[in-house]
Structure formats: structure tokens, C-alpha cells
Write a structure and sequence with these properties.
The chain is mainly alpha-helical. It is built from seven helices and three strands. A three-stranded parallel β-sheet has the order 1-2-3, covered by helices on one side. Helix 3 links the parallel strand 1 and strand 2. Helix 2 crosses helix 3 and helix 4 packs antiparallel against helix 5. It is elongated, with a radius of gyration of 19 Å. The chain starts with 12 loop residues before the first helix and ends with a helix.
């Protein structure tokens, strides 16, 4: 199992403690630098460095791979790389997984932006006028940034992390550049029923 944005295995304790059966469970944490001290800046490279670890844990064969939040993107890429090397992946679980919104299908993106804007306007309507004007300007600028980055395929400084931990900053940068590929294998999405992404149906998104 690959943990989320902070790369912190401890956040998986509750999930692992709920497992039943004889299987062993390992947490795979992304590296900030590789053996040559080169920064690890992409989801693909993070996964590439984890695949040999799978082979060390168990001889090449069937694996069950999972990832939580940002870690789900790495797990998906691990699934691709293991299968492309000719080895089976018994199961792939994406837990509360979300990829960058500029790669969402247009319909889902428009629906989410409409809901997001509506909720902000509803909240602003109850503010003092002076504060409401400042908040409206801030949200308008944010909306324009989201619209502009929707069609951008180059580096995305807007999403590059600078105010978190080294791992979370690296994860945000990697996530902004990662566009999921079709996975031709068994895959299970575990998603919260609560509306956490402005009404975007996560299952619809991943389908």
C-alpha cells in the first residue's frame, strides 16, 4: 500500500488493522531522491523505484497493490509497470483517489466548477460588503486560473507545492503532471460517499 500526500505509513494503520487473512502488508513510501541523488519528481519515477522493492519482498508473480489518495496514482502506475514487465497483478485498489482536474472529462469538470462557484457565491452573499468584495475578487482570480490551466500541457507552477513538507510539495508537483492511462486489468475504486469534490462522482471520473 502506498500512503498519501505526506508519504506517511502511519496513516495506513487503521486500514491495515482492518484486514483479515494470512497476507502480509507492506507500506511503500516514495523517495525524494534516487540512488544517484537525483530528485524524484514524477509519479512514473516514484513507481519505477518501487517495483524492484516488490520483487525483493516476494519473487515476481502475483501482487495485490493499493494506494491511498496521491498514493493511488503511484499504485496505478506500479500496476502498469508490473504488467508491462510480464507479471500479473491480482488486484489493484485505488482508495479515495483523485487525479488533477485539468485532465478530467470536460462534462465532469464543468459540473464541478459550477458547483464550486455556486457554493462560494452563496457564502459570499452572507458576508459584510467590504469583505465580500475582496473575497469575490479572490475567487474570480482563482476561477480564471483554473480555466487557464485547464488547457495547459506544460509545467504547471500553480500546482507546484512550496508551503508544505518536502514530500507533500514533491507529491503536488508530480500529481499536477500525471495523466492516468487506461488500465487493462482488474481495478477496484474505494470512494467516500460524502461529497468531497464539489459533486464530482469519483467512480464516474475514473471510468
Amino acid at each position: 500500500i502506498v500512503p498519501g500526500l505526506e508519504g506517511e505509513p502511519a496513516e495506513l494503520t487503521a486500514v491495515v488493522s482492518a484486514f483479515t487473512g494470512p497476507q502480509e502488508v507492506y507500506a511503500l513510501t516514495p523517495l525524494l531522491t534516487d540512488a544517484d541523488q537525483q530528485p524524484v519528481t514524477s509519479v512514473e519515477r516514484m513507481a519505477e523505484l518501487m517495483v524492484p522493492v516488490l520483487h525483493e519482498i516476494s519473487p515476481p508473480g502475483s501482487y495485490s497493490v493499493a494506494g491511498y489518495s496521491f498514493g493511488a496514482l503511484i499504485a496505478l502506475e506500479i500496476g502498469h509497470q508490473v504488467r508491462e514487465a510480464g507479471h500479473p497483478v491480482d488486484a489493484l485498489f485505488l482508495i479515495d483517489a483523485l487525479y488533477d482536474e485539468r485532465y478530467w472529462p470536460r462534462r465532469l469538470w464543468l459540473e464541478a466548477m459550477t458547483r464550486r462557484t455556486g457554493r462560494h457565491l452563496s457564502r459570499i452573499a452572507h458576508m459584510h460588503p467590504s469583505r465580500a468584495v475582496a473575497e469575490l475578487r479572490k475567487r474570480a482570480e482563482g476561477l480564471m486560473q483554473r480555466v487557464n490551466r485547464r488547457g495547459a500541457d506544460d509545467d504547471d507552477p500553480l500546482m507546484a507545492g512550496t508551503d508544505g513538507t518536502p514530500m507533500s510539495n514533491r507529491a503536488r508537483t508530480a500529481m499536477a503532471a500525471y495523466r492516468p492511462r487506461f488500465y487493462d486489468g482488474p481495478l477496484t475504486l474505494v470512494a467516500a460517499s460524502a461529497d468531497r469534490h464539489f459533486g464530482c462522482d469519483t467512480a464516474d471520473l475514473w471510468s
